[in-house]
Amino acid sequence: MKKVLTIAGSDCSGGAGIQADLKTITAHRLYGMSVITALTAQNTTGVQAVQAIDADFVGAQLDAVFSDIIPDAVKIGMVANKEIIQMIARKMQQYKVRNIVLDPVMAATAGSKLLQKEATVILQNELMPLASIITPNIGEAAVLAGFTPTTTDEMEKAAKIIYEKVFAKRQDDCAVLVKGGHLTDSADDVLCDKNLTYIYNSRKIDNKNTHGTGCTLSSAIACNLAEGFNLQQSVKNAKKYVTMAMQTNLDLGSGAGPLNHMAAGGWLTSDIWQ
Ligand SMILES: Nc1ncnc2c1ncn2[C@@H]1O[C@H](COP(=O)(O)OP(=O)(O)OP(=O)(O)O)[C@@H](O)[C@H]1O
Ligand SMILES: Cc1ncc(CO)c(N)n1
After folding, report:
1. Whose atoms come closest to the Cα of 249: which ligand?
2. Residue limits of the Pyridoxamine kinase/Phosphomethylpyrimidine kinase domain (predicted)?
């Protein structure tokens, strides 16, 4: 069985972060492991409090995992502050980790900050270059590219700018995926690698329950990379997973509710694993 590690923050309400990642990995019928970077007190209405884990303790968790069970892919989500980013970067290099999916989480859907502002540059310079794919949403792409994309053409332009900043010197397969969940007319995602652009067209599902879509997409990409799919196909499969998980309209809590991983897992078993 392939193994997938998530390095992320905990969402006690189960919709985003570590909890969304482990549900996604389990629905893909893979073995999930987790290194927790921060505890959050949050629910469908927003984030009430954040407690970052000591960077040394994040390192201790990474040593415990990598000295025993080597993951086939790693998803990195909320990293909270620069000390944690530097610890993760050091350990990823020490253990020569491949298949890293980096979701550059900066804020929760409702707007609360999940990354120290001054840590953005460290994230870009020290951790992003170690990833196979980075998956900014529109707001994160705006911070990284220097302008806010509003169309698929502009998303492509932003992805190319980010690619040049982060991966300019890389020879192996790597890519930037700008996610369109916050566009108004569609939910198209745009992937750029060294040579090509792929547009994943999707109509916007009329559903306020989008808590954890980004976490779910990035961990689903990691599952597909662990299974041996290439970047382009991994994103295609992962986007289908998120779409299925949104479509059933699970409606928990009074705000932006979580996804239904049972519905999405059903698609996986029927279409890919048989
Ligand atoms: N209303 C929607 N209809 C269809 N797909 C959507 C919708 N909202 C988000 N998605 C898809 O979900 C995935 C995550 O995109 P999004 O831009 O919401 O990420 P995010 O902002 O990082 O997520 P999060 O809310 O977890 O922080 C993308 O593949 C996006 O296209
Ligand atoms: C822990 C955590 N990670 C990521 C997000 C972004 O959705 C969130 N709300 N909470």
Report:
1. 1
2. 11-260
| Residue nearest (by alpha carbon) to ligand 1 atom 18 | 181
Q: Ligand 1 within 6 A of 179 CB?
A: yes
Cα of 137 to ligand 1 centre, how many Å? 8
Give the domain extent around 218.
Answer: 3-247
Residues identified as active-site:
179, 210, 212-215
Task: Check residue 112 and give its pLDDT.
Answer: 79
DSSP 115: B
CA distance 233 to 33: 23
3-state DSSP: the chain helix, strand, coil percent, rounded to 5? 40, 20, 35
Count of domains observed in the chain: 1
Q: Confirm whether pTM is higher than 0.90.
A: yes
Is 257 among the domain residues?
no
123, part of any domain: yes
Q: Is residue 239 part of a domain?
A: yes
For 149, the 3-state DSSP assignment is coil
Mean pLDDT over 95-109 rounds to 94
